[in-house]
């Protein structure tokens, strides 16, 4: 049960694929990017992942509202939700404070930052959920602790894969039957999954 919050954050990361087909179709149908521009944007969208250690340092050293885990998952979920809302607003035409192309970049960057923050927190939590002492306060054997740490890592990877598989067909079906903005709004269920994990 102690592993459930970590697993839910990892699952949410995989389940974000729910919007992938819709996002790709929307880019093709409505945006004016050239292939080289899309490649350039992809580089910028990878930047938060390349500085993941900076987020890790924040999560480990700067508590927010007295929390170094829960608050950061909530911050990550907020960024993810904001990114999805920006994309929905751009696709639906009810957000117009930037050009459509720029709204996509903003939404995508918010989504990536939120995902990176949550991934960093899940990585940190995955080492903390394994107790180092037993109920009597005695040190647990190193080999047992290492085995359990390995199991948490395996469960995390399986949760990401389960999230991807859970939405693989659904992603294409949603792109076919409902509007682009509606799919982005349905995607708001993903940050809710990680938020639910926090409150467990």
Give a topology summary:
Elements lengths: L3 H12 L4 H11 L4 H16 L1 H10 L8 H23 L7 H29 L13 H36 L2 H7 L2 H10 L2
Helix pairs in contact: 1-6, 1-7, 1-9, 2-7, 3-6, 4-6, 5-6, 5-8, 5-9
What kind of sheet is the major sheet?
none
Shape: elongated
Spatial separation of the terminal alpha carbons:
9 Å
Number of strands: 0
What is the CA-atom radius of gyration, in angstroms?
19 Å
Oligomer: single chain
- In sequence order, what are the helices and strands, one letter per element? HHHHHHHHH
What structural class do helix, strand and pairing data support? mainly alpha
Strand content is under 5%
Q: Averaged pLDDT, please?
A: 89
Low-confidence stretches: none
Fraction of residues in helix:
over 70%
Q: Count of helices?
A: 9
Question: Would you kindly provide a written description of the structure presented here, covering whatever features stand out?
Answer:
By secondary structure, the protein is mainly α. The protein contains 9 helices and no strands. The termini are close together. The model has no long low-confidence stretch (mean pLDDT 89).
List the main descriptive attributes of the protein structure presented here:
200 residues; 0% strand
Compact overview of the structure:
The chain is mainly alpha-helical and 200 residues long. It has nine helices and no strands.
């Amino acid at each position: 049960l102690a592993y459930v919050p970590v697993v839910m954050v990892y699952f949410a990361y995989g389940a974000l694929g729910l919007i992938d087909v819709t996002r790709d179709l929307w880019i093709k149908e409505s945006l004016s990017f050239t292939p080289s521009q899309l490649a350039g944007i992809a580089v910028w969208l990878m930047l938060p992942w390349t500085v993941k250690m900076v987020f890790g340092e924040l999560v480990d050293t700067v508590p927010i509202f007295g929390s170094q885990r829960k608050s950061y998952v909530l911050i990550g979920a907020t960024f993810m939700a904001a990114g999805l809302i920006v994309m929905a607003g751009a696709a639906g035409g009810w957000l117009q404070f930037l050009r459509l192309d720029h709204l996509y970049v903003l939404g995508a960057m918010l989504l990536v930052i939120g995902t990176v923050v949550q991934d960093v927190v899940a990585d940190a939590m995955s080492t903390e959920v394994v107790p180092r002492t037993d109920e009597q306060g005695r040190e647990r054997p190193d080999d047992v602790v290492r085995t359990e740490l390995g199991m948490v890592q395996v469960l995390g990877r399986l949760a990401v894969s389960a999230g991807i598989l859970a939405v693989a067909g659904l992603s294409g079906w949603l792109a076919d039957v409902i509007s682009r903005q509606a799919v982005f709004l349905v995607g708001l269920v993903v940050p809710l999954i990680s938020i639910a994990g926090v409150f467990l």
